[in-house]
Design goal:
Elements lengths: L1 H27 L4 E6 L3 H9 L4 E9 L8 H6 L5 E8 L6 H9 L9 E2 L2 E2 L6 E4 L2 H17 L10 E3 L4 E2 L7 H4 L1 H11 L1 H9 L11
Helix pairs in contact: 1-5, 4-5
């Protein structure tokens, strides 16, 4: 029985690694791919990922809930189940999904299950929305490795979910950090985002982000 169980475990691991290798090879041949992350205020997530080489476009929006065509007011009031999230279009020949996961983890507090920084509630909770089975496998592996590393002293609260419909947020939210730099910088500072990320991650904070 022990030998049979071992063989099955090895076979399962080989299947996972084969699938991940196939995903990496397929991604490398594509000119564009999509990732979706929820990391609290989407203004900040958009700003962070715009600073990652290989990211072609970011879009702020809502996803993960049941309400069709949600609005900012409805989402922030609660009850829709949606999170603020950012859809990231990237060039997999320049930046891999695994690298984007590394950037994501180190730009948020993944141990906070009630929101992010000064923003509380479901709409500000973190999440990874996988757009394919391969992305889900990579995300699960990344999460497990991070938890096992001991870097974080608390359990990771960030769920990994299959991506559903992504609803583009209102126009005034798009590129907010560029359109309203003073208000954005004041909000980001007063919310304590960077202070908490640096406290949690130390010299790994904002790893992979060229600017923010």
């Amino acid at each position: 029985m022990m030998a049979r169980t071992t063989k099955l475990t090895v076979a399962a691991l080989l299947a996972v690694f084969t699938s991940i290798a196939a995903f990496a090879a397929n991604s490398a041949s594509q000119s564009e791919a999509v990732a979706i992350f929820a990391g609290g205020c989407f203004w900040c997530v958009e700003s962070d990922f715009d600073g990652v080489p290989g990211v072609l476009k970011t879009t702020s929006g809502y996803t993960g809930g049941k309400l069709k065509d949600p609005t900012y007011r409805a989402v922030t009031q609660g009850g829709t189940g949606h999170r603020e999230a950012v859809e990231i279009v990237y060039d997999p020949k320049i930046v891999s999904y695994e690298t984007l996961l590394e950037v994501f983890w180190r730009s948020v507090d993944p141990t906070d299950g009630g929101g992010q920084f000064c923003d509380r509630g479901v709409s500000y909770e973190t999440a990874i929305f996988a757009t394919s089975p391969e992305q889900r496998q990579l995300a699960e592996a990344s999460k497990a490795a991070l938890q096992a590393s001991g870097i974080l002293k608390k359990p990771i609260a960030t769920p990994i979910e299959d991506a559903g419909t992504f609803y583009r947020a209102e126009t005034y939210h798009q590129g907010y950090y560029k359109e309203n730099p003073l208000r954005y910088k004041f909000y980001r500072f007063s919310c304590g985002r960077d202070a908490r990320v640096e406290e949690l991650w130390g010299d790994q904070a904002h790893k992979g982000i060229a600017k923010h």
